[in-house]
TrEMBL record:
Belongs to the glycosyl hydrolase 67 family. It catalyses: Hydrolysis of (1->2)-alpha-D-(4-O-methyl)glucuronosyl links in the main chain of hardwood xylans. Its EC number is 3.2.1.131. Residues 466-691 form the Glycosyl hydrolase family 67 C-terminal domain. This is Xylan alpha-1,2-glucuronidase. The lineage of its organism: Bacteria, Pseudomonadati, Bacteroidota, Cytophagia, Cytophagales. It comes from Belliella alkalica. It is an enzyme of class 3 (hydrolase). Residues 25-142 form the Alpha glucuronidase N-terminal domain. Residues 146-465 form the Glycosyl hydrolase family 67 catalytic domain. It comes from the Bacteria. Homodimer.
Length: 712
């Protein structure tokens, strides 16, 4: 009997060890082999000064971590604590004298952790902050350090976020579909709210807090004014109350025509007094429900959304009206610069710049202009948006897309930190050399105090949140870069792997390399050498270089690649649309010259003949074909690498990722074959050696159209 139960126990333990659905994200708290005395002691004797719901969360987190790390229950020890977590104001400063100025400079979200030795009695690790939320961030930081088996450096850890508002943007609709969402439905169950608070809301807040995200925009930028009605504000309040102890504020998208749709007004003209008053009253109402409501995000005059243009007004007229409404309550307005129209007869690349640059300095103090990383639309690679170097008098925030609308949706592994990093590091030259985009985002370049970053979320009801297990890393990476836009993609990848999977270097190193190369791999098999927007129509999944015609030229592929027998690429130099003229002279010179432009941007800015010789001495067509082939080979290699990791992590996640990687390898070939067949009609050149011939003819690929692709 005893033997049987022991066997059962072993069976249970082994199936537990080999199954992991990924729900716990990077908060696995897996067992630490050979923990140090310090690690164990801190958990056996910790003390939290004060009481609040946030401090309770800290206590719970330490318990969870202790059980996971050491299979031990952690204990509060008020007499002889080895880990003291305290607001500075609650710390016994006689025992632990700290530099008050230094602590003040942590601000409201920073933390300080140091091993402190003031004689035998007072040896302890101290974590201090000015607020409970600072302590929560400190706790997650410390627990992550422990999980990674890292020691606290002698000088301590002194951290505070470099941007003020670090937000997820959910493109979630009230019916729970998610625009460009590939991981199930929206996690906001509006129908059950406000009476049912799902555990997932709490887990969501916890995950975000653990990487420093402090705001969430609950609703789609293609907005529904219904969310501003009392019925929905009740629901929004329930979410805000749930998130508050985790330091997360709630924001909503404001549909510009709301005064008409839910206010009974005849106009939404921003200069109309009644409309202005309506928004002021609406803001007052929202703040009654949610006193710390963050503010509004607005998509106006873009892709059919209403906006100030409907009334012949400017983007400033619209933004400032909303800003005035939320200002008395400390709210902000994030006004999107993603404004373009098929009726404007100019390169789509140029339109936002042309519209916003003249408005520099004309926005209210609580407005920040939200700019996508590139001028077109979240492509696998885009040059940075020229607005980042053009509006010194206006706070600008970065909008990254975490969900992979144009990078293979949920099944294609693409670690996005290198892409984010690439843009943040670019020099705009707006204030001379050294004007990196990151310095605009953290406000340091033009001394702005209102700073922010937004990431379009990739989260849904899938058990592992993000579809592909590795796409959790993109949520994680986004949070880390919003906290510190100067962070290195490499460190982020390594941390994520260690926290999520394993500390085994034989796993960490090859997988880190795979992750760091993955975005470039996707560029190779989708849009090498500066190609862009050649995805299938509407759902953007799979290749569609043949997409042409229809209601809008700027939603077709032929508009962007301009392929003909003469060559390929969009001429954005002075001989073409001159979008290049929107960048600094230094860049105009470098990028304007076909021989000095980095090849990764070549076809973005130049129309290039097929036989043009690139730096490696080979012609454009051969280079293009080889990029496609390389991408396919890398995707196949990843399958092998991942297979060789069998047994190093739990089977469940291993199998899940493996099947996705096989899809990716297959579809990389789909991309290569379709694009090379299509472009080959124009180049009329044979495939170079080493590039596999396509499996089917072009017709086959044109006719292949996957049905019911999610996320539209
Ligand atoms: C594009 C998407 C579209 C979004 C739009 C936006 O295709 O679904 O609504 O961006 O950012 O990438 O407003």
């Amino acid at each position: 009997m005893k033997i049987l139960s022991l066997n059962l126990l072993l069976l249970f333990l082994s199936s537990y060890a080999f199954s992991n659905d990924g729900y716990k994200l990077w908060l696995q708290y897996h067992t630490i082999e050979n923990p140090s005395d310090w690690q164990k002691e801190s958990f056996e004797h910790f003390k939290i000064n004060g009481s609040s719901s946030t401090l309770d969360i800290i206590g719970d987190e330490i318990q969870k971590a202790s059980l996971g790390f050491f299979q031990k229950v952690a204990n509060q020890d008020t007499n002889n604590p080895k880990l003291i977590i305290s607001k500075f104001s609650d710390l016994d400063q006689q025992k632990f004298p700290l530099d008050a100025n230094k602590i003040t400079s942590l601000g409201s979200e920073g933390f300080f952790i140091q091993d402190f030795d003031a004689g035998n009695q007072n040896k302890a690790t101290i974590m201090v902050a000015n607020t409970d939320i600072g302590l929560l961030y400190g706790t997650y930081h410390l627990l992550q350090k422990i999980q990674k088996n890292e020691a606290i450096p002698a000088e301590g850890i002194f951290q505070s976020p470099k941007t003020q508002h670090r937000l997820l943007n959910h493109w979630d609709n009230l019916d729970r579909t998610v625009e460009r969402g590939y991981s199930g439905f929206s996690i906001w169950n509006w129908h059950r709210l406000p009476r049912h608070i799902d555990q997932q809301y709490i887990d969501y807040a916890r995950a975000n807090a653990s990487i420093g995200i402090n705001g969430t925009v609950l609703t789609n930028v293609n907005a529904n004014s219904l969310v501003l009605t009392p019925e929905y504000l009740e629901k929004v309040k329930a979410l805000a109350d749930t998130f508050r102890p985790y330091g997360i504020k709630v924001y909503l998208t404001a549909r510009f025509s709301s005064p008409i749709e839910i206010g009974g007004k005849v106009t939404a003209d921003p200069l109309d007094q009644e409309v202005q008053d309506w928004w002021k009253e609406k803001a007052k109402e929202v703040y009654k429900y949610i006193p710390d409501f963050g503010g509004f995000v607005v998509k106006a005059d873009s892709e059919g959304q209403p906006g100030p243009h409907n009334y012949g007004r400017t983007q400033t007229d619209g933004a400032n009206m909303l800003a005035d409404a939320v200002a008395p309550f400390g709210g902000i307005v994030m006004w999107r610069a993603f404004v373009y129209s098929e009726k404007t007869p100019d390169d789509r690349h140029k339109q936002a710049f042309n519209e916003f640059k003249p408005l520099d300095g004309k926005f209210r103090k609580n407005v920040i202009v939200q700019v996508k990383n590139g001028a077109i639309d979240f492509q696998p690679r885009e040059p940075f948006h020229p607005l980042f170097g053009a509006m010194p008098k206006t706070p600008l925030m970065m909008e990254f897309q975490i969900t992979q609308e144009y990078l293979g949706h949920d099944t294609h592994l693409a670690f996005l930190a290198p892409m984010y990093e690439e843009v943040l590091k670019e020099d705009t030259y707006v204030s001379g050399k050294g004007s990196e985009v990151a310095k605009t985002i953290d406000g340091s370049l033009h001394s702005h105090t209102l700073t922010a970053m937004a990431g379009v979320a990739n989260i849904g009801t899938d058990r592992n949140w993000t579809g592909h297990h590795f796409h959790q890393a993109n949520w994680f990476a986004y949070g880390r870069l919003a906290w510190d836009p100067y962070e290195k993609a490499e460190n982020i990848a390594e941390d994520w792997i260690r926290l999520t999977f394993s500390n085994d270097d034989d796993f960490v190193n090859p997988i880190k390399e795979m992750m760091l190369n993955s975005r470039e791999m996707v560029v190779n098999y989708m849009t090498p050498l500066g190609l862009h927007h050649i995805m299938a129509r509407s759902h953007h999944y799979g290749p569609g270089p043949w997409v042409t015609g229809g209601s809008r030229a700027d939603w077709t592929s032929t508009y962007y690649h301009q392929a003909s027998e003469e060559g390929i690429g969009f001429d954005r130099t002075a001989t073409g649309s001159n979008a290049l003229g929107q960048y600094a002279m230094e860049l105009q010179k470098k990028w304007g010259d076909i021989n000095s432009i980095p090849e990764e941007h070549l076809l973005w800015f130049h129309h290039v003949s097929w036989d043009h010789q690139l730096k490696n001495g080979d012609n454009l067509w051969n280079n293009l074909a080889k990029h496609y082939q390389k991408g396919v080979e890398e995707a196949r290699k990843n399958v092998k690498t991942w297979e060789s990791m069998n047994g190093k992590i739990d089977d469940e996640r291993h199998q899940h990722v493996l099947s996705f990687m096989k899809i990716q390898a297959e579809e990389a070939a789909w991309w290569r074959d379709a694009c090379l067949l299509y472009f080959g009609q124009f180049s009329k050149m044979p495939l170079p050696e080493g590039v596999e011939p396509p499996k089917h003819d072009l017709e086959h690929y044109i006719n292949y159209n996957p049905k019911n692709v999610p996320g539209i």
